[in-house]
């Protein structure tokens, strides 16, 4: 086990940090989040979408909070960047403020630590799990896994709300009471009996309406439950503390131009002095949106899409992470443009006027004059 529920004051601080980070942009951010499944389906399992990594074993260390946090980050990375990585729980056990390593903690503090330190998790092979808390070393390696956004759902969300979040953000961290015979000795069926005080963190990865239950991934090895997984009934007393996390989208190799008669529209950008990351979301008409990640300084990014000649409605959204005075926050740009496409064209995205003194700006499309050294 090892869950330590934050105090009201600590929760208020978490909400304040997350609120200052996203500011007025949450609704815009929600528009850019992809769906990995159908929230109206009678059953859903992230394993069917390659969105779940292997079951792990925390051993005799109260680090369930770190395992739940890492499992959600691994899930988000697998879904967004199509890559399964084994990330290091030990990084959190060593480093996360407001948590006591093997003496217990809370997963949102882990997300917050990554965000505030502009840090990335080590790979498991580089900082392996040792079941003890060691000194903290910020990792500057090659995992390329960083937090884009996270949120904690206050109160007791409805089944429909949790399903909606699960298909959009991947695995969610959740707390429950594991100190019952039904949970400790679970082998099959659906768990219903829990006390109201949560003692343990697990990862929510799916649901089944016929069972009226959530599918969870535990961190007690494959000998617990159904090879490390189990079912917990909807609205079970003690099931609480739902949190999701999104990682940044990695740079990707450009797609080749299709052979059929399409016109290339290139949206170029280079990260500014304060920008540490930018994502570009482009939807043409009702087509599926394209999402591009930009992470490196001194690079002119070419974000190309291909459309037939003619008039098209473009929805263009940028989500930008900036870092100033060692604090990180998000800025958003939005453009709803009607473009008549005749020939290949290149545009530079420019942030113009701020919308109602918020952190959301109108975007304009201008001639490309970007030069990088």
From TrEMBL:
InterPro entries: Papain-like_cys_pep_sf (IPR038765), Pept_cys_AS (IPR000169), Peptidase_C1A (IPR013128), Peptidase_C1A_C (IPR000668), Peptidase_C1A_papain-like (IPR039417)
Annotated ranges, domain Peptidase C1A papain C-terminal: 40-247
GO molecular function, one term: cysteine-type peptidase activity
Name of this chain's protein: Peptidase C1A papain C-terminal domain-containing protein
Organism phylogeny: Bacteria, Pseudomonadati, Bacteroidota, Flavobacteriia, Flavobacteriales
Family: Belongs to the peptidase C1 family.
Gene Ontology biological process terms, A to Z: proteolysis
Superkingdom field: Bacteria
Source organism of the structure: Polaribacter glomeratus
């Amino acid at each position: 086990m090892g869950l330590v529920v934050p105090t009201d004051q600590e929760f208020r601080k978490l909400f304040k940090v997350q609120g200052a980070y996203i500011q007025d942009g949450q609704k815009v951010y929600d528009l850019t989040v992809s769906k990995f499944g159908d929230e109206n389906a009678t059953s859903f399992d992230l394993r069917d979408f390659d969105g779940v990594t292997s079951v792990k074993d925390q051993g005799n260390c109260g680090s369930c909070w770190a395992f739940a946090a890492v499992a959600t980050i691994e899930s988000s990375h697998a879904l967004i960047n199509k890559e399964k990585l084994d990330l290091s729980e030990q990084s959190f056990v060593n480093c996360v403020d407001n948590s006591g390593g093997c003496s217990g903690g809370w997963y949102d503090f882990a997300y917050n630590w990554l965000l505030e330190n502009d840090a990335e998790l080590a790979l498991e092979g580089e900082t392996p799990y040792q079941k003890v808390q060691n000194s903290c070393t910020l990792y500057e390696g090659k995992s390329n896994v960083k937090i884009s956004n996270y949120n904690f759902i206050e109160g007791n969300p409805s089944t429909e709300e949790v399903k909606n979040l699960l298909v959009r953000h991947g695995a969610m961290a959740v707390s429950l009471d594991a100190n019952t015979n039904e949970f400790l000795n679970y082998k099959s069926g659906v768990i219903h009996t829990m006390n109201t005080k949560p003692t343990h963190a697990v990862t929510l990865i799916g649901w089944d309406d016929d069972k009226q239950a959530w599918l969870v991934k535990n961190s007690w090895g494959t000998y617990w439950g159904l090879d490390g997984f189990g079912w917990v009934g909807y609205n079970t007393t003690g099931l609480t503390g739902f949190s999701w996390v999104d990682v940044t989208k990695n740079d990707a190799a450009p797609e080749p131009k299709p052979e059929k008669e399409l016109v290339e529209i290139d949206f170029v950008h280079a990260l500014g002095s304060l920008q540490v990351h930018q994502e570009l979301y482009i939807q043409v008409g009702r087509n599926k949106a394209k999402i591009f990640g930009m992470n490196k300084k001194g690079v002119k990014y070419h974000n190309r899409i291909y459309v037939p000649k003619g008039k098209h409605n473009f929805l263009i959204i940028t989500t930008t992470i900036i870092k100033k005075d060692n604090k990180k926050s998000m800025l958003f740009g939005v453009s709803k443009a009607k473009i008549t496409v005749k020939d290949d064209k290149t545009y530079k995205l420019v942030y113009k006027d701020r919308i109602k003194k918020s952190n959301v700006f109108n975007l304009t499309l201008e001639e490309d004059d970007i030069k990088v050294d």
